[in-house]
Design a protein that fits this description.
The complex is a heterodimer of chains A (about 190) and B (about 70). By secondary structure, chain A is mainly α. Chain A has two domains: about 1-65 and about 120-185, Clp, N-terminal domain (Double Clp-N motif, Orthogonal Bundle), CATH 1.10.1780; about 70-100, no CATH class. Chain A has eleven helices and no strands. The longest helix of chain A has 16 residues, at about 5-20. Chain A starts with 6 loop residues before the first helix and ends with a helix. In chain B, α3 packs across α4 (about 65-70). Chain B has one domain (about 1-70). Chain B is elongated, with a radius of gyration of 18 Å. Chain B has about 70 residues and is mainly α. Chain B has helices spanning about 1-20, 20-50, 55-60, 65-70. Chain A: This is Clp R domain-containing protein. Chain A: Keywords: Repeat. Chain A: It comes from Streptomyces caatingaensis. Chain B: This is Sigma-70 protein.
Chain lengths: ~190, ~70
């Protein structure tokens, strides 16, 4: 599948891996693809994302650490009679801002550490699905190659909780980004 | 008002617990992650206060080895 990726799309995938590594995540998710697309300064895709406030820095801040508890967790805990906001508040009073949401530490396995920080991260299920959808989007748009714009279409077609949550925290949604990108791709009538 | 809300919440909880496994399991998963975060916070704090792994393990009800393996070098 990768042979049909454009240089830009390949660079995006490489950047996604790097971003996931810097965030100390264990695998590459669709949210890292989105972040990587935003980091490709000067590309039409990054420009579209920037219009929605999806900039590299905003993304990195808004991507939740894998163990962080989000609104969906708060809702689930509420059903058990636990007020996550109250717990978070108390934790922060005692241990400082973001105490409950601190990212996990680097891998503790000596093997992983010995392999070095640049150890290749595996693609998670959401990233794989996003890339498969990118191929489908490219075919649907009668494009012979898979470009960065198709990767973004794939990411926004996913309905992945990490992507949806990230975009929501940035004040937008996959649908909004997607339709803006699509209207840019279609030649003006 | 608050009482009514609490009663509603209780109703939802009871319903969730014995009807929809998805909701119940989701809540358990969230609770587990919350416990993990709280444990990390408290263990770090205990270490800063000079507690030994032995003491932390005893307080948590697990072995010194278990707590050390899980939290050392974090």
């Amino acid at each position: 599948m990768f042979e049909r990726f454009t240089e830009e799309a390949r660079a995006t995938v490489v950047a996604a891996q790097e971003e996931a590594r810097l965030l100390r995540h264990a695998s590459i998710g669709a949210e890292h693809l989105l972040l990587a697309l935003a980091t490709r300064a000067g590309t039409p895709v990054a420009a579209t994302l920037a219009r929605f406030g999806v900039t590299p820095d905003a993304c990195r801040t808004a991507i939740s650490p894998p163990e962080a508890l989000d609104e969906a967790d708060a809702e689930a805990l509420r059903l058990l009679g636990i007020d996550l906001h109250a717990v978070r508040e108390r934790a922060e009073t005692a241990f400082g801002r973001g105490a409950l949401d601190r990212p996990p530490a680097a891998p503790r396995s000596p093997l992983l550490r010995r392999a070095g920080i640049s150890a290749r991260l595996p693609f998670g299920a959401s990233a794989k699905r996003a890339l498969r959808l990118a191929l489908r989007e490219a075919v649907g748009l009668r494009s012979g190659v898979i470009g960065a714009e198709h990767v973004l279409l794939g990411v926004t077609a996913l309905d992945d909780p990490a992507v949806v949550g990230l975009l929501r925290r940035l004040g937008t949604s996959p649908a909004a980004v997607r339709s803006a990108l699509l209207s840019g791709l279609r030649p003006a009538a | 008002m608050a009482g009514t809300e609490a009663k509603d919440a209780l109703g939802i909880t009871e319903g969730a617990m014995d009807t929809d496994p998805r909701v119940g399991l989701r809540a358990v998963a969230a609770l587990r992650r919350l416990v993990e975060r709280l444990e990390a916070l408290q263990v770090d704090n205990a270490r800063r206060h000079g507690w030994s792994w032995e003491e932390i393990g005893t307080a948590l009800g697990v072995s010194r080895q278990a707590v050390h393996k899980k939290h050392a070098r974090r």
